[in-house]
């Protein structure tokens, strides 16, 4: 029978890296890089080869193996696995670098900051305090070679080869036999008796002083050099002198040394150390303390080391969100730390958390995600956007909070390039149609128009043909002046997407109507656009061969490169009007009233002024918030010029700033006349948008019905005639409603986009109906009184206790 011996080194679940060894502490150990075979995760492997005749060193190595395996502390080198055979010892720890090598590498890159050094020394002193005060152990080997640094920049204490018990039950300190290590022994051990040692920590604190000197000044040449502090910071010098004093009795306990350095003005009293100490105890902190900590963390991250942010702060942020219910407060520091990650790490660590955050119902979480989307949008792939993010984002279009609706619209600028055909051309257009036609916030309607112009190049050719002309035409009839400006600029920015037929028959008629707009800013932009479109038509008329070149983009497939013309004007409209929306929301916490009493566009000088329209009696909400806020708040926003054919198209903020002044110039009745005027919203245009929501058609949205001629004097409405019935008809005259609709303001209603009812005619003809209803009630009252009088006369008064017999 054959027995096959298995090699334990070959079966060991870790393997050494083929790279040359990194070295290690002076002594028998050699430090190798390694990795775990199953996962490939990096580790460090300390290897000791057993040699004949070196029994003493072998015993020291085995003792270090045992100590490292049994001691567990955050500041002591973390043991993972080990292998002990007759030929070798393998000790696997977390991936670390010797401190000497780490300092050398960082010196070539600019050196370590005092913040990092203060926290590193804090960790080593804390490890010594644990050994001396909690375990009654003397390390006996504190020096540069016994300290290691992990990937997060955390300092770990190793080199446990010569450790012994402070209680003396394990014998005295083992003999080192290594001259490089013996130079760190305190002077009181020179006699060899050890009688001068008064405290158990005195020798280790002397060695700590040697470590501090080497960290700031380099390798220690001789013990006499300790008298000169060199580059040691002034705030640390007094405490350093206590460590290297000749009298061992005055050397402080490690715990007291930490306390002294953490005092106000001390070397270890800084934001970096405080942040690390909080992170170590974050699991036992109160929720309010965590919220405050994460809010203040973002300000400090810029001064913290990159490795520390990636490997220590980031895991704590992810844990706090996933298990600690930290909420939206972790988003700002999370995305700030995410800048230090490469694309692969970002996909693995940040994106899963972001996707999960989008499904949150917390409004603060949602609005912060939308505001900071530009920081992570490039890491999102199209399937993730369409299946896991967009379905949650679109809920913001229907939110009752105007700030969330606005941020949702702005986020579409970033999401549109990654949306599929159904989400972009169908779902998103439905929500845009509803917002532009019915949202009660003027700036949000304006931003919707701007965003549509920006993403127009991503739409399919059929959707562009059906949507853009109708949408921008609708915007030019908006009572909010910046929305009308945005409609004009939308036409200009997407000029290459229209055929010459559309330019002549659809766009120019709309723009010509704006040349008598009450706002000079709207008129100026309209004239510029008209001249540009006319120039384009004239060039094709002069040379018909240019038609194919001019219309090359009309039927082209969606392409990001086609959006260059819209890029310049989309930025100013979104960022500029957003501040106005925010101020309106702050000024009016409740939902802002709809624009019902909007100034009617007056007629320029030289034209007969139309009679002011009558405002319905039931409409009591005022639209003054538009003109007042528009004239004051938008002045603070920066202006960005739009350019088409090297022509300055102006700034929305500048035009919005002059709205109020222009209204005063054009209005003949001042504020008194404003209350009795209405907007010129076209009912045909609004109804077409509503029908598109239900039927998916914008094709007729650009058409304007000719205004109906006023009826001759003496003409009566159809409802005023008695058509043969016994009583007057209780139904309103639909023709009267149509005729009066031009005189009433078309107030946007925050209905859902799918609720496409047709009660607008009855609502807008309230005056005629109110009169009919009043007459009907009066007639009914007289009829009931006559019937009651007739019954009373026929039967007489009833007596108490008698039953009425029919």
TrEMBL record:
Q: Which UniProt keywords apply?
A: Coiled coil, Cytoplasm, Cytoskeleton, ER-Golgi transport, Golgi apparatus, Kinase, Phosphoprotein, Repeat, Transferase, Transport
Q: At the top level of its lineage, which domain of life is listed?
A: Eukaryota
Q: Biased composition, Pro residues: where in the chain?
A: 18-28, 601-613
Which residues belong to any copy of the Protein kinase domain? 14-314
Under the heading SUPFAM superfamilies, the entry gives:
ARM repeat, Protein kinase-like (PK-like)
| Compositionally biased intervals (Basic and acidic residues) | 763-773, 780-793
Q: Which CDD domains match?
A: PK_SCY1_like
Q: Which is an annotated GO molecular function term of this record?
A: protein kinase activity
- The answer to whether the entry has keyword ATP-binding is no
Key word Signal present: no
The Acidic residues compositionally biased stretches are 753-762
Q: Which GO terms describe its biological process?
A: vesicle-mediated transport
Cellular component terms per the entry's GO annotation: centrosome; COPI vesicle coat; endoplasmic reticulum-Golgi intermediate compartment
Query: Where does the UniProt annotation locate this protein?
Result: Cytoplasm, Cytoskeleton, Microtubule organizing center, Centrosome; Endoplasmic reticulum-Golgi intermediate compartment; Golgi apparatus, cis-Golgi network
Region called Disordered, residue ranges = 14-35, 591-641, 659-806
Family, per entry: Belongs to the protein kinase superfamily.
Q: What is the protein's known function?
A: Regulates COPI-mediated retrograde protein traffic at the interface between the Golgi apparatus and the endoplasmic reticulum. Involved in the maintenance of the Golgi apparatus morphology.
The identity of this protein, by name, is N-terminal kinase-like protein
Q: Which organism is it from?
A: Lynx pardinus (Iberian lynx)
Give the taxonomic lineage as stored in the record: Eukaryota, Metazoa, Chordata, Craniata, Vertebrata
